[in-house]
């Protein structure tokens, strides 16, 4: 294992402290705790708090979206591991301004258990809580079991919609409703061509033969739906698009936003080659693309591969998507 680190044990803390050192004008540690990231300056007016949590190793997911027009706090776990319920509870309290708090996170067992324990704990503080679990990975379960699907890169669109709604003064119930509507029209699927190495483990999380590609693999190396011979970029884009559109059923005059997300080791050049084909396929259906996202938004250490997310838009969702947002890793102006 060759990684630029000081030790496997200090990997997460060193990474977080580096991010804080670079972006202390925007984000801060809560009471000096590297496990809890919050906005450096609280919003001027009380608003619904938006919080998330998850394991490290997916940068900029999760902590990279703490910022204006996005989320207010993030509890940080070890690589591919959930943070504790105690850290989550402290974060929720810090992000409550009296308007309630939305818990917005991925569909993973550890995060669910710990967030629900945290919610029970802050109930004594009379903080109103609503939970939304991201479930956009359409390769991880069939449509009739959509509630069991994993939350992957599409979470970023959830953060964007919820964060903009909260900044606009929506109530907790209204923020939750519009975020749920966003997820109902959001699907993601990914592919992988090589594994990653968790620092404390020191060996690859899985193996893929040379000349092969795994379709539908999860961001922790969860098994996909098929291992196939290597495909061209156009073939990958078409395969994923067809899988997503089988559920979204896009038609002329629909509007969508698209994310092509690198998993850590896929060059931006290749991501744009894939986006080119997705744009062509949508153009053939006379579907308009709004504010495409191409880059690394939810990685898996140094895994080679990418995912494609497509979200249907209505007038309100488009407005919220375009609303100003700024964090160390995401600004609306760059989209």
Describe this structure in words.
The protein has 335 residues and is of the alpha/beta class. It folds into 2 domains: 174 residues, Dihydroxyacetone kinase, domain 1 (Rossmann fold, 3-Layer(aba) Sandwich); 134 residues, Dihydroxyacetone kinase, domain 2 (Hypothetical Protein Tm841, Chain: A,domain 3, 2-Layer Sandwich), CATH 3.30.1180.20. Helices cover 31% and strands 24% of the residues. Strands 7, 8, 9, 10, 11, 12 and 13 form a 7-stranded mixed β-sheet that branches. The chain has a 6-stranded mixed β-sheet with strand order 1-2-4-3-5-6, sandwiched between helices. Strands 14-15 form a two-stranded antiparallel ribbon.
What's the helix and strand layout?
Layout: H1 11-23, E1 27-30, E2 33-39, E3 49-56, E4 73-79, H2 85-95, E5 101-106, H3 109-122, E6 129-134, H4 155-167, H5 172-184, E7 186-194, E8 212-215, E9 226-229, H6 233-248, E10 255-262, H7 268-284, E11 288-289, E12 293-295, E13 304-313, H8 315-322, E14 326-327, E15 330-331
